[in-house]
Amino acid sequence: MKYILALILSLTLVGCGTSVPVKRNFPSVPEELLVDCPELKKVAQGTTKLSEVLIVVTDNYSTYHECHIKLQAWQEWYKSQKEIFDSVN
């Protein structure tokens, strides 16, 4: 009787220990981070004032560089996090 219980217990414990590998995937990019940069402004047709042209150019310059810096920083962060994730696996 003792041996039967020991056999049943050992078979039960062996069944609980599986060696199935767990596949982990690095998360994909969230949709809100895939938003394109805003369109640049255009100088109104027939504008003759240099001050109005400079305002549009300045706004476009700052908009472009702000978007470029955000995108570049996010890409560097994502790449480094993915490398860390892959090195742990």
Overview of this structure, please?
The protein has a domain at 31-89. The chain is built from 2 helices and no strands. The protein has helices at residues 2-16, 50-88. It is rod-shaped, with a radius of gyration of 30 Å. The two termini are 46 Å apart.
Largest sheet: none
Radius of gyration: 30 Å
Give the overall silhouette: rod-shaped
Average pLDDT number = 83
Distance between the ends? 46 Å
Stretches where pLDDT falls below 50 for ≥5 residues? none
Measured as a percent range, the helix fraction is 55-70%
The number of helices is 2
Coarse structural class: mainly alpha
Order of helices and strands: HH
Total strands:
0
Strand content: under 5%
Brief rundown of the structure:
By secondary structure, the chain is mostly helical. The chain has 2 helices and no strands.
